[in-house]
């Protein structure tokens, strides 16, 4: 699974490496052709398939907005309703598509290659991880799961809690998931006790030093990820609703949470009002010594990360250096790392720095542009090496302001290998405006 960790303007990992070569939208699968999944365990997570499919309809615009609460702020009454709903879901007959395990199977099938793409030859699996379907599919999946829970307790406005882990009070596993192990329907004995309250959660999946949460914002990136490509908008999936109906929903149905009639509790997030600080005085350009250590990006690629860090001189696009705030928002400047070739089954991480010669720089400094992360995810058909080719886009508009180098014509970009980069090849690094 690819993850782009970037700054506050834009931090995108291109998630379109699995687009079908035929340039057709992925269609809802034929459930009768569902196959055994591997994850890597052999699992049959195929759903019931002998039902008529109905088309998803957005809820009426007049229906109330359902507010998802922060998990660490919910009260005893909410926990009682939530655990009751999950308990009822687990007690449904095993062949009921709303059953807890059946709902888990929905995720298993789409994320572990149980389905083939309809009408595509040769055989091509549907895999919503590591593709541009990741965000909309999971949004729809949780939407239907949430609706089923609400229906089971007769509460149509019920919402799932969200984990507010990027605020100090939410940085521990929500206690409701670890309480009452003998009776709670949401307790899981497989959760690692070493990470349960009162311990802070270790979200350092890259196995490096602790990182600043501001590096992991997703919501600010979504505005730049609303594609207009019909292959994306018309990609469709099958889910079961609260009435056991088999429903076909499209990516285009999931673009707006307000149209889905839900929102998130407004909670304080202190870091959003804080910005990284530069290591050197504002306006300090890349030193001549640093530039001497770098090579021109145009002459450097393709390049392997097997031999350590890569330091490049990258030209900026020709733009008005005194752009207004509105112009910057409409066309943010992005650092693009393209043709990143790697094995999807390996965990990979590298960091990206700008105008900095210290490879230990962390996200609390303005020179830290972001990270590329691939979390190992193997499934059927991936027993050996599986090469993928992807890209990373990191917003540097704020970074340039913080460093005071908006008038510079070129930047020194350093790519620092962290985890599993020995077989990673990079094809190009450039800076462009994102329209």
From TrEMBL:
SUPFAM superfamilies in the cross-refs: Di-copper centre-containing domain (SSF48056)
Chain ranges of the Tyrosinase copper-binding domain: 129-146
The entry's keywords: Copper, Disulfide bond, Metal-binding, Oxidoreductase, Thioether bond
Transmembrane segments: none
Superkingdom of this protein's organism: Eukaryota
GO MF annotation terms: catechol oxidase activity; metal ion binding
Essential cofactor(s): Cu(2+)
InterPro entries reported in the protein's UniProt record: Di-copper_centre_dom_sf, Polyphenol_oxidase_C, Polyphenol_oxidase_cen, Tyrosinase/Hemocyanin, Tyrosinase_Cu-bd
Family: Belongs to the tyrosinase family.
Protein name per UniProt: Tyrosinase copper-binding domain-containing protein
Organism: Stephania cephalantha
């Amino acid at each position: 699974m690819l993850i782009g960790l970037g700054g506050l303007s834009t931090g995108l990992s291109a998630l379109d490496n699995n687009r079908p070569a035929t340039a057709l939208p992925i269609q809802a699968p034929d459930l009768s052709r569902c196959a055994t999944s591997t994850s890597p365990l052999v699992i049959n997570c195929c759903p019931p398939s002998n039902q008529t499919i109905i088309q998803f309809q957005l809820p009426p615009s007049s229906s109330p907005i359902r507010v998802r609460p922060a998990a660490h702020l919910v009260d005893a009454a909410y926990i009682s309703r939530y655990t009751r709903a999950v308990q009822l879901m687990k007690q449904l007959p095993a062949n009921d598509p709303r059953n807890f395990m059946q709902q888990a199977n929905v995720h298993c099938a789409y994320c572990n290659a149980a389905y083939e793409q309809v009408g595509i030859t040769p055989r091509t699996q549907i895999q919503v991880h590591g593709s541009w379907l990741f965000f909309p599919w999971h949004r729809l999946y949780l939407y239907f799961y949430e609706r089923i829970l609400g229906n089971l307790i007769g509460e149509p406005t019920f919402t799932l809690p969200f984990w507010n882990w990027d605020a100090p009070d939410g940085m521990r596993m929500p206690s409701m998931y670890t309480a009452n192990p003998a009776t709670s329907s949401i307790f899981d004995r497989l959760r690692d006790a070493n990470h349960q309250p009162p311990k802070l959660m270790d979200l350092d999946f890259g196995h490096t030093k602790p990182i600043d949460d501001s590096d992991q914002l997703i919501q600010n990136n979504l505005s730049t990820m609303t594609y207009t490509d019909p292959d994306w908008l018309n990609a469709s999936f099958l889910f079961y609703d609260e009435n056991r109906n088999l429903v076909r929903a499209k990516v285009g149905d999931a673009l707006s949470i307000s149209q889905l009639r839900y929102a998130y509790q407004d909670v304080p997030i202190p870091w959003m009002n804080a910005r990284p600080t530069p290591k050197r005085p504002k306006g300090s350009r890349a030193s001549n010594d640093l530039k001497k250590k770098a090579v021109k990006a145009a002459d450097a690629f393709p390049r392997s990360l097997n031999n350590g860090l890569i330091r490049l001189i990258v030209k900026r696009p020709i733009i008005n250096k005194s752009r207004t705030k509105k112009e910057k928002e409409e066309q943010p400047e992005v650092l693009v790392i393209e043709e990143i070739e790697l094995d999807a089954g390996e965990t990979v991480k590298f960091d990206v720095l700008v105008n900095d010669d210290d490879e230990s720089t962390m996200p609390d400094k303005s020179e830290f542009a972001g990270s590329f992360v691939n979390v190992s995810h193997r499934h059927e058909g991936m027993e050996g090496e599986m090469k993928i080719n992807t890209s990373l886009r990191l917003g540097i508009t704020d970074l340039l302001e913080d460093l005071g180098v908006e008038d510079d014509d070129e930047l020194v970009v350093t790519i620092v290998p962290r985890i599993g980069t020995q077989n990673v090849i990079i094809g190009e690094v450039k800076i462009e405006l994102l329209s």
